[in-house]
Amino acid sequence: MTDATPKIALERLKKSFGSKHVLRDVSLTVAPGTSTVIIGGSGTGKSVTLKCILGLIVPDAGRILFEGTDVTRAGGRVRAEMLDKFGMLFQGGALFDSLLVWENVAFRHRQGADALSKADARDLAIEKLRRVGLTAETADLYPSELSGGMQKRVGLARAIARSPEVIFFDEPTTGLDPIMADVINDLIREIVSEMGATAMTITHDMTSVRKIADRVAMLHNGVVQWEGPVGEIDTTDEPHVRQFVNGLAEGPIEAIR
Amino acid sequence: MIVALTRFTASLGAGVIELCRGTGALAVFVAAALRHLITPPFYPVELMRQIRKIGYDSLAVVGLTTLFTGGALALQIYAGGSRFGAETVVPSIVAIGMTRELGPVLCGLMVAGRVSASIAAEIGTMRVTEQIDALVTLSTNPMKYLVAPRLIAGTLTLPLLTLIGDVIGIYGAFLVGVHRLGFNPTTFLQTTWDFLQFWDVLSGLIKAAVFGFIVTLIGCFHGYNSARGAQGVGQATRAAVVHASILILAANFVMTDIFFS
């Protein structure tokens, strides 16, 4: 699997906001069809990394390759074509609150030259909602009428609506109860293996990591400190990973008290 | 002493830099917005929704404002005119004052309060809750989907609102004139109609279109650049109303100068 062109490759990414150096030197390759989880404390640049790949943030230096093509500063058509292969589940769901649930899920299907009719788009949305365990009745509600867990599922349904080749999950289980978190983890695992998609997930939930990761990358201080298969996170003696996996206050990662 | 002086000049400099930065950011935003205004894809459903929200939903506010102002204007002109025996000028001065100045400016200011604030709050919340990022990941340009329909809706509907406001304002003056000041209804309307020129009305509508653009633009700009959190959205909302109102009054002066001097 690793001999093929990586789906996504990050080469020495740097990004600062003012005097705050969020990404110092981030390099990472993601093979097609694998699920990579980025772990790390809050504010270590996990979200910024994903946003750089999506083009929401332009890095100060470094390169981002998608299927071997440099897309670091791509705009217009190139960016649009690339994003059509992407799905993203945002941390808070980021559902459009002025639109109904089904309009959210089928949002992309209602735009552009290949737009579906209203009825077809609604049917497709309901099918995707079923896929994430929601009933057809939720389709005609507004996002604000749903619970947090349901909003997350709708976000998931929207992310997979166009059967993307790459899916990003930004803290998919944060703010959910353990049972709902497990349901979401199972869904992510199923969807990724079933669709054969490449996944990148940000989380600091170790249960989630063990459930959905093939490979794990530990980001700290704007640098990837460790990268390896999920099976090795308990055996590695890399101090950052050891501290994080075991949830210790003592270690190279400073805990601010 | 020197420390205090340095601190004073530093704060002055910071203010100037912030002003330049803000003006530059607005200019870039306007350029981007105008480019996206004229290039496809267009979102007619969104446009209709915004026309309803900005135009139709502002009718009551605009109607009440102009009705009372028209009435007050009639009373003032009557009182002022009576000082040199010119009470009969009420209908003609109301007509000019309403169509050229008060109609567009009042509509602009009322819509600035209503619409700039709600646009800034809505887009600001979308920014804070990552809905704008979500639009991008769904291959939808937020400038085209969010900003362009609002700009078009504002520019189209404010002249219509102003036209309605003009009529209601003059009607307010008519009611006061006939029932309080003893004008003959037919004479009042005839004087208004005879005196009013097409350009009086048209100039007001042109002003209104510019105000509509300003109101929606400033609302979108502040919402789009909203800082994080509820506080950020609150600041964006306040800045939108204040800046839109000031810009409307400044633009009004400039346009009046160009049109009538």
Mean pLDDT of chain A: 88
Distance between the termini of chain B: 50 Å
From the alpha carbons, calculate the radius of gyration of chain B and give it in angstroms.
22 Å
Number of strands of chain A: 10
Number of helices of chain B: 9
Sheet with the most strands, sense and barrel status of chain A: 6 strands, mixed
Would you spell out the secondary-structure blueprint of this structure?
The complex is a heterodimer of chains A (257) and B (261).
Chain A (H helix, E strand, L loop, with lengths): L7 E10 L2 E11 L4 E5 L6 H9 L6 E6 L2 E2 L5 H8 L2 E4 L11 H5 L12 H14 L16 H13 L5 E5 L7 H18 L2 E5 L3 H7 L2 E6 L2 E7 L9 H8 L11
Parallel strand pairs in A: 3-8, 3-9, 6-7, 7-8
Antiparallel strand pairs in A: 1-2, 1-4, 4-5, 9-10
Helix pairs in contact in A: 4-5, 5-6, 6-7
Chain B lengths: L1 H37 L5 H12 L3 H23 L8 H39 L2 H7 L4 H38 L5 H11 L2 H27 L4 H32 L1
Architecture overview:
The complex is a heterodimer of chains A (257) and B (261). With 257 residues, chain A is an alpha/beta fold. Helix content of chain A is 32%, strand content 24%. Chain A contains eight helices and ten strands. In chain A, the strands form two sheets. Chain A has a six-stranded mixed beta sheet. A four-stranded antiparallel beta sheet of chain A has the order 2-1-4-5, with helices on one face. In chain A, strand 1 (8-17) and strand 2 form a beta hairpin. In chain A, helix 5 (148-160) packs parallel to helix 6 (178-195) and helix 6 (178-195) packs parallel to helix 7. The model of chain A has no long low-confidence stretch (mean pLDDT 88). Chain B is mostly helical. Chain B is 87% helix and 0% strand. Chain B contains nine helices and no strands. In chain B, helix 4 packs antiparallel against helix 6 (142-179), helix 4 (90-128) packs across helix 7 and helix 4 (90-128) runs parallel beside helix 8. The chains are: A alpha/beta (257), B mainly alpha (261).
